[in-house]
Amino acid sequence: MSEDILIYEKSRPGRTGFSLTATSAGDDAVDRLIPASFRRREPAALPEISEPELVRHYVNLSTKNHHIDKGFYPLGSCTMKYNPKVNEVAATLPGFAQLHPLQPDEDCQGALELMYRLAGMLTDITGFARATLQPVAGAHGELTGLLVMRAAMIKRGNVRKKIIIPDSAHGTNPASVVIAGYEVVQVKSTDRGTLAASDVAVVMDEETAGIMITNPNTLGLFESEIVQIAKVVHAKGGLLYMDGANLNALLGQAKPAEMGYDVLHFNLHKTFSTPHGGGGPGAGGIAVTADLTPFLPSPTVEKDGDRYNLNYDRPDSIGRVHNFHGNFANMVRGYAYIRQMGAGGLKEVSENAVLNANYLMNLLKDRYELPHDTTCQHEFVLSAARQKKRGARASDIAKRLLDYGFHAPTIYFPLIVSEAMMIEPTETESKETLDHFAEAMNAIDKEIDDNLELVTSAPRNTPVRRLDEVRASKTLDIKYVG
Ligand SMILES: *Cc1c(COP(=O)(O)O)cnc(C)c1O
Asked: Which atom of ligand 1 is found nearest the CA of 282?
């Protein structure tokens, strides 16, 4: 297939993708205007190709990958919702896109106002006192939040050593804890898949800085003892961190600050409109209680009358966690999204996300084991244990789904469910799409009995067949040698 060759192989000497008429400056304008020392001695080694060939090359490549504009993407824990394209238009408005991050405050009043307002909306949604938008990923928000907690503890003269994390936690949680200089103490979830305040009480002591809890947790279950857990942790002088990656289930329903949390990170790119999935860019701002506000990263955006400015004069701040102001385009998308939805719209987002997840869970639970058989929030976790006994693992089922035109769910996470398949449909999918996905999952289950090899050798219909994933990540080689 011609689109399978590299763009360099399509290159023909002298072919160009543009045509410009001569300017009044004359043919030698470049030579005259740009000093010789700044000019290339040889032309850059770029492919020489016509515009339509160039467009087709990249359009064809773009359709080889799965993406949300092409099909359903039920990747649990990631909230791969469809993002309104109008937010892209907002993010590329020249007044935003062409701002230089070093421009003085008076030149970027609009951008500062947007950041100030967005932080205010996020604190309204979650009930906290203040937010920063500087961290550029959820994991980065975790680290920032833990450093804020640590700074507050140091200020109180009470440095502590440990942070409690449930066994259902996302892998970034323990990693952030260790980078922030703490030890991880694990607490087991109960058979119900959630935490018991009595189990937290056993491990919570005066050496422990606090606890990190995702809510709803990675099984898609609401941590219903959160208020009691907050009491246990606060009574020993600890703080509660909420991993807010699953905030899509709570929008307009409940405010984490009122549950007793002290810090929360947002994944703007999951909950508040930014296409993601290729690894970035993200935005992982955090919100905190009034007590923790002095420790937030600098600078903060402040409002003074009708003017906005960046405030660096914050003696207790943990300092900067990123160059400039964070991933600003994500903030524009998030702001546009929240404005577009309004409070009522956000409430509907979470209601429909939860409804869709429960609908799909009920279509699948006859054929696939559902270890925690209860109403779920925005996602649910199945086990392919029964299928494994018949010869196909969760990874085989995930690969076979690609042949049906769907992205696979998250598999083998959370770790507490064997052969886990974590499915998050999101609010933006129709009943018909959910029905088709369930039909495919149930058809695959049948294929395991009728034609096992079809499943274990999948995928068959994708541009490349089954890859050696270990080799791909251990000996990554992306250099083209022509
Ligand atoms: C996605 C996710 C994170 C990490 O967020 P990134 O933006 O990918 O760094 C943390 N916790 C949970 C539960 C998540 O789903």
From this structure: 7
Query: Is the peptide bond prior to 299 cis by the omega test (within 30 degrees of 0)?
Result: yes
**Residue ranges in 204-313 assigned as alpha helix (H):** 226-235, 256-259, 268-271
Domain extent listing, the chain: 2-64, 86-340, 350-473
Pocket test for ligand 1, best of 79, 146, 167, 172 (most atoms within 8 A of CB): 172
Question: Atom 14 of ligand 1 has which residue's CA nearest to it?
Answer: 245
The overall pTM is greater than 0.85: yes
The CATH number of 86-340, from 3.50.50.60, 3.30.2170.10, 3.40.640.10, 2.30.29.170, is 3.40.640.10
Looking at the DSSP bridge assignments, the partners of residue 307 are: 304
Phi, psi of 398 (to 5 degrees): -60, -40
Q: pLDDT band at residue 1, thresholds of 50, 70 and 90? A: very low
* Backbone phi, psi, residue 197, to 5°: -60, -35
* pLDDT tens sequence across 144-164: 999 999 999 999 998 899 999
Residue nearest to atom 5 of ligand 1 (CA): 138
Q: What whole-number distance in Å separates Cα of residue 7 and Cα of residue 305?
A: 55
Q: Ligand 1 in contact with 411 (CB < 6 A)?
A: no
The beta strands (E) that lie in 102-200 are given as 130-132, 162-166, 183-187
Say whether domain 350-473 belongs to CATH 3.90.1150.10: yes
- Please check whether residue 384 is in contact with residue 392, taking contact to mean a CB–CB distance below 8 angstroms: yes
**Cβ contact 311:325 at 8 Å:** no
For residue 137, give the ligand 1 atom closest to its CA.
7
Whether the Cβ atoms of residue 265 and residue 282 lie closer than 8 Å to each other: no
